[in-house]
# Entry
Amino acid sequence: MKKSILFVFLFFALNLMAQEKKTSKLKPYKIGFLYNFGANEYFFHDDPDYTYSTNTYKGQAFYKLGNWKSFDFELIVQPQVQFLKHQLINEQFITPDQENYLEKRLEFTKPKAMSLYALEFGFSAKRKIINKLDIQASFGLGFSFIDTRTERLAKGFTFLENFSIGFNYNIFKNSYLYIGSNLGHISNLNFQKPNDGYNILGLEVGCSFNL
# Structure
């Protein structure tokens, strides 16, 4: 079921990106797809209280923002779906002062499979290293919805942040391969409780095509 939702989501997302726009400025010059795997176990300050991992699938639309010296700047619009796995390891994280704390311990120490749907806006800077090879750094902000509550984050509206760095290789005339790594964070800015959020370190691979 989740795979069907994923393919339908990405099909419509990439289809929308590739359509002709009434205004040329709204048409991306390049579209792509990116896969990311991340987990809190890989994060620099691993939290032993819980486990968390994500498989993320992003559609991408690239817009040129300009250049400065040797850098090219882009906006990357990224609709995405994330399939998450989470489990509370340390039940003492749920303290007795919380309402229904015994019920919450029982609920949150069970493994959970969750989904997150998001629209992320990434701002990237690229610089050519050698012929056909660029280094790219990007910072992304987005709005998202998570469908399951945990001891760390309430169900519903959230924000996400990503910092990525990697390499683009021009494998064919109009086709590119991207390999990189990212640091990510999800929380809701205290719009709801709890809001401890999640931190991940991830690896990602993508491909993109000039239109």
Q: What stands out?
A: The first strand starts at residue 30 and ends at 39. The mean pLDDT is 89. DSSP finds two helices and eight strands in the chain. Residues 145 and 191 are 13 Å apart (CA to CA).
